[in-house]
């Protein structure tokens, strides 16, 4: 059983907002300095910590800000891509990220090794483990295997988890009630109201990404509504001949 007292770096995140600063390949903001600036802007707005992807991005953010940093490395196009092997874990930990996030779902890992080896690699490097899961059973297994924090990050992104329009608050509540380790709510949190609801469901902290740091998605949301309002209504269309 894990020590129920969270480490000091996690205590700095208790009841607070973590902002995920990530850009997809090929996007204009896919640049370490852009993500560094994004992280600084988020911190100025009140974020208590940052979650970021990629070794160069993590180094740039670590050099610019002394706040809890959740680091990951996405490698691959499908399946387990979030810090998928122990080798990836060691590289992420070497950037100075105090917490290494990795995929702890039941899906097969690209090297065929159990994720417990990645947990051990993180701990050997002096970092904590954030286990990104999709289901209740995965959360239980990850905590039992030694995860320091469990995140609902992947709920809705695997075949055996429901794709909801908003955050999976039921999963947050169930894990928070069952685990001694902190449970972080992450995934499809698109409004301050939803972030608050996640904390009220029992989350230790909340991670928000797209709704704060991904202007391409934000623009699409607005553009879709504007385009829908601009389209002629059926009653306005000319009658067919």
UniProtKB/TrEMBL annotation:
It catalyses: an N-acyl-D-glucosamine 6-phosphate = an N-acyl-D-mannosamine 6-phosphate. CDD domains: NanE (cd04729). Pathway: Amino-sugar metabolism; N-acetylneuraminate degradation; D-fructose 6-phosphate from N-acetylneuraminate: step 3/5. Pfam families: NanE (PF04131). GO terms for biological process: carbohydrate metabolic process; N-acetylmannosamine catabolic process; N-acetylneuraminate catabolic process. Coiled coil: none annotated. One of its GO terms (cellular component) is cytosol. Its EC number is 5.1.3.9. NCBIfam families: PRK01130.1. HAMAP family: ManNAc6P_epimer. Converts N-acetylmannosamine-6-phosphate (ManNAc-6-P) to N-acetylglucosamine-6-phosphate (GlcNAc-6-P). This is Putative N-acetylmannosamine-6-phosphate 2-epimerase. It comes from Kitasatospora setae (strain ATCC 33774 / DSM 43861 / JCM 3304 / KCC A-0304 / NBRC 14216 / KM-6054).
């Amino acid at each position: 059983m894990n020590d129920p007292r969270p480490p000091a770096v996690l205590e700095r995140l208790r009841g607070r907002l973590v902002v995920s600063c990530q850009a997809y390949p090929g996007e204009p903001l896919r640049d370490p300095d852009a993500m560094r600036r994004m992280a600084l802007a988020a911190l100025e707005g009140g974020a208590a910590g940052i979650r970021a992807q990629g070794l160069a991005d993590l180094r740039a953010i670590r050099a610019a800000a002394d706040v809890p940093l959740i680091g990951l490395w996405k490698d691959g196009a499908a399946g387990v891509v979030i810090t998928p092997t122990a080798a990836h874990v060691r590289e992420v930990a070497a950037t100075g990220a105090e917490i290494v996030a990795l995929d702890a779902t039941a899906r097969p890992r690209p090297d065929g090794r159990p994720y417990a080896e990645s947990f051990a690699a993180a701990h050997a490097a002096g970092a904590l483990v954030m286990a990104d899961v999709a289901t209740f059973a995965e959360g239980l297994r990850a905590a039992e295997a030694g995860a320091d924090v469990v995140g609902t990050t992947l709920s809705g992104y695997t075949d055996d988890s429901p794709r909801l329009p908003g955050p999976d608050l039921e999963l947050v509540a169930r894990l928070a009630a069952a685990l001694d380790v902190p449970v972080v709510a992450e995934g499809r949190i698109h409004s301050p109201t939803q972030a608050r609801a996640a904390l009220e469901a029992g989350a230790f902290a909340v991670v928000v990404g797209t709704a704060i740091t991904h202007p391409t998605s934000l623009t699409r949301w607005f553009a879709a509504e504007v385009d829908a309002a601009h389209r002629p209504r059926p009653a306005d269309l000319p009658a067919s001949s």
